[in-house]
Amino acid sequence: MTALTATESINRFKVLTTSKSASDTSGEGAGIPAGENFRSQDLLYPLLLTSSNDVAELYQEQVWHFVSVMNQKAEAIGLAHTIFTDASGRDSGNTSTAEDIFRLLSYIATHKKPIFDILGEREHQLNSADGKLFSWENLNWPEDRQFVAGKAGKTTSAKETMAGVYKVRLAEDVERPVAIIVLGADNRVTDIRAIIQYLENNFVYGNVLVQDHGPVTPVVREGASIYQALEP
Q: Which residue positions does the secretion signal occupy (predicted)?
């Protein structure tokens, strides 16, 4: 939502100077020193690929009541159970549900394709407005041919989270993009891979395959949620 709000509230060609307060933000950072200049649109890469808290803070500094704008956008696109209290997601007051996060992911994939495409890049390099080369690797998911795009998160209160789209084989030689949302995970990678394996072993276009000895029990930790494919 921070990326979505920034793209709709800040001119994408506006040059932003990283502030000391943003650079000193705790948690994941983009490795950008204070005083470096970037076009606003270029800062989406560290924000989305590395969960850069310093970039989130910098965006928040650019717009009056940035978090209020985030909440207004959430309400506008139907996120009925979502509340934002900061731009970086560090605050324990940020709350949402798997269904709301699916709605947000679907909205971005449909209406904000440039943001969705960034989430699927493995690595991105660019020059700052000052001519310095920066490179950011996608830390949301390990190298994996099934991964399409997605955003991970981790805080003490929320534990590990992931909202991603994966290529899932639901029939012989047929893969479909499926959105999988995991909240409160001890290990998001383990949970999501278990969900994908279960889907591939037990579903064909939404129909459960039942073995002779009865339904197959999913090996998925309680709390993991599966949502429908993004495409019909």
A: none
